[in-house]
Amino acid sequence: EPGGEALDCLRGGGPEDLRRIVLDLAAAVSQSPRSDLARHLDDGSALARFRDLVACQGGDPECLDRFALVHPAPVVRDVPSPRSGVVRRVDAETVGRAANSLGAGRNRAEDSVDPAVGFDRLAKVGEEVAAGQPVARVHAATATDADAATARFLQGFTCE
After folding, report:
1. pLDDT by residue (tens digit) across 56-110?
2. Which residues fall within 8 angstroms of residue 147, CB to CB, at 6 or more apart?
3. What is the pLDDT of residue 132?
4. Strand partners, 129
5. How much of the chain is helix, strand and coil, in % rounded to 5?
6. β-strand 85-90 against 118-120: which pairing, if any?
7. How many angstroms separate the CA atoms of 34 and 134, rounded?
8. CA distance 148 to 21
9. How far apart are the C-alpha atoms of 109 and 106, rounded to whole Å?
10. Phi and psi for 105 in degrees, rounded to 5?
11. CB distance 30 to 49 below 8 Å
12. Per the confidence metrics, is the pTM higher than 0.85?
């Protein structure tokens, strides 16, 4: 589900590389020792604080527990690798623009955001993949949108 890895990290899990980045960023803006910051992820206090922030902004923090049910995308499909090899590049700007084309972001302040669309389960640089193996998953409003976003995503994906 979109947001799944971020929420998993706030629950003390998620991918190790994301956890490392979160702790690096938190350490850069905090006076707290890294061990305290890691404990906040592991003991649930980071998630509790995020839930408070959602509530303060008028959101329903209970939705975080059932994100995929609250915000399902009509079309969810794997993005297959065009070839076998080692992932050399997953360009963040290209992925972001592909997600934005789905409605996951704004081009103007008055644009709405569709929380159900985007990409998840992205392959990581250095990962070995086989042709046809999923290297991402796209969440879209229509099959046409999914096709276009997949093509755009693959423009920023290199596997050799």
Report:
1. 999 888 888 776 676 789 999 999 999 999 999 999 999 999 999 999 998 888 8
2. none
3. 97
4. 85
5. 50, 15, 35
6. unpaired
7. 34
8. 30
9. 7
10. -145, 180
11. no
12. no
The CA–CA distances, whole Å, from 81 to 38, 78, 92, 110, 133 equal 34, 9, 17, 36, 5
* Residue position matching structure tokens 């042709």: 131
User: Quick one: which of 154, 150, 160 has its CA closest to 77?
Assistant: 150
Give the type of residue at 142: T
Q: Which two tokens stand for residue 119?
A: 């990409």
Location of structure tokens 């190790």: 16
As a whole number of Å, the end-to-end CA separation of the chain is 28
CA-to-CA distance for 77 and 139, rounded, in angstroms?
7
Q: What are 122's two structure tokens?
A: 């992205």
146 in Cβ contact with 75 (< 8 Å)? yes
| DSSP summary character for residue 86 | E
